[in-house]
Amino acid sequence: MxxxxxxxxxxxxxxxxxxxxxxxxYFSDLDGLAGDGDFGTSLATGFKVIKKDLPDLDxxxxxxxxxxxxxxxxxxxxxxxxPIWGTGFMKAAMPTKGKSELTLQEFADxxxxxxxxxxxxxxxxxxxxxxxxxxxxxxxxxxxxAEKGTEDLAEVLKDCATIADGAVETTRSLVAHRxxxxxxxxxxxxxxDPGIVAIATILAxxxxxxxxxxxxxxxxxxKASA
Amino acid sequence: MKKFVxxxxxxxxxxxxxxxxxxxxxxEGNLEFQMVKRKDRPVDNKVSIVQGSGSGHEPAHVxxxxxxxxxxxxxxxxxxxxxxxxxxxxxxxxxxxxGVLVLVNNYQGDRMAWDTAVExxxxxxxxxxxxxxxxxxxxxxxxxxxxxxxxxxxxxxxxACGAAAEEGKSLDEVxxxxxxxxxxVRTMGVxxxxxxxxxxxxxxxxxxxxEMEVGVGIHGEPGRERAKITSADExxxxxxxxxxxxxxxxNGDRVALxxxxxxxxxxxxxxxxxxKAAQLCEERGLTVVRNYVGEYCTSLEMAGASxxxxxxxxxxxxxxxxxxxxxxxxx
Lengths: 226, 331
Prior knowledge:
Oligomer: heterodimer
CATH architecture of chain A: Alpha Horseshoe
CATH superfamily of chain A: DhaL domain
Helix content of chain A: 55-70%
CATH class of the largest domain in chain B: Alpha Beta
Structural class of chain B: alpha/beta
Shape of chain B: globular
Number of strands of chain A: 2
Number of helices of chain A: 10
Mean pLDDT of chain B: 94
Shape of chain A: globular
Strand content of chain B: 15-25%
Order of helices and strands of chain A: EHHHHHEHHHHH
Low-confidence stretches of chain B: none
CATH class of chain A: Mainly Alpha
Order of helices and strands of chain B: HEEEEHEHEHHEEEHEHEEH
Distance between the termini of chain B: 31 Å
Largest sheet of chain A: 2 strands, antiparallel
Structural class of chain A: mainly alpha
CATH superfamily of the largest domain in chain B: Dihydroxyacetone kinase, domain 1
CATH architecture of the largest domain in chain B: 3-Layer(aba) Sandwich
Low-confidence stretches of chain A: none
């Protein structure tokens, strides 16, 4: 059975840090269209610490490593991103404690738990034009593959990247219903949500890091992933 | 970009260090958590009043710490909520048997950070409650958004709660005061220029030489509309009517009137706005009992202003009259 090891997850977090740090200004620019332009900086501040501390973090098991990352986020990430990403890592840590590798089902459960936690923390749901519009369908796709017993993890990753990428387009014309962009009403329409772009870019970069061929469709994702 | 900045990432800790250095008798801080507190607080028999939000709005919120105002505050990065740890450590540092009241401005980031921090503190049996401030009439209040933003009206909530807490009111009573102020305070702002967050290094939005953003948020968020600039009197009337019609304020009401500069508007211009706003109060039969003209809640160097009206009663008048001393003192 296909499994996902601690070092694969560690590698994924390291790649995520590179994505976020490289796009510090670009993600802030996207946020400035409907919000206040802090998203890229807030997230990059935390991921710079994660990138630096990752080699020496306690990696006795996957859950312990994720919990340590959640604590870094709580301490260093301001803005909405701190509670959202911090809650996500913490909730993913809970079912993965004591495990050094995960089946696809266990991985899907951990991501599902993270998504539930983020929804509870911010009160957002599908269609509110937040990063949940990317991660909810990704979590569902993971669950589908786990239930089908898909062995090819490259196929799973590519599917997830495609779905998140597509969410940039399907949500572009929506009016935000949560987050600071919601407070500008109709004027948030026709701007891409930076959280959705970030998730799609991270997944596109994971494809690249794992030699899975994937060409982003949304122009913002193509730009950020370049 | 020309700014007095050493390194953008050091901007917040350095200005906080400056506030501490300028007020050694009044304040102490823990810069690991971007926190400033009154040296002589907490005490057992007084509710602690706490706030924390993004930087860039000074004198709100960290310069509003002192007797009769906040007991402690923590800062996030410019325009971003403080990290959860900073909020939690601030509650812990001001914890007292009388309780801690956190005044939260209504933004998604602030709400989530404080929700989490309050849960953590309550799990440790710290007595703490929170209250949401949302006075910005520019935002359409609806079930489908995060709701109205907390802007300059925040000052009146801090002032009244600070005074009520000094009087020895209980946590529930102080929270009721916060609710009374928030229910009776309304604000709207206008921007003539954008502001430049140090870490971004460029304006947060583009605006033409002949344009203004009516209903702008204090982080440069878009407001009700982008319009051609008009005369000071006409702009004042637009803001004033939006604010006064919202509650609504009625003939015979006693009010506090604030003209708040957003950071880049000279005091003289604020008084031009005040002059017209005071006239408009008279036309509506509103008696201005107290007035506030100056910078209370800014948006870095944004040229612009907001108008706030607070409907008063005897209790609130007493609280506004009560003494307060903060790092934001001018003389």
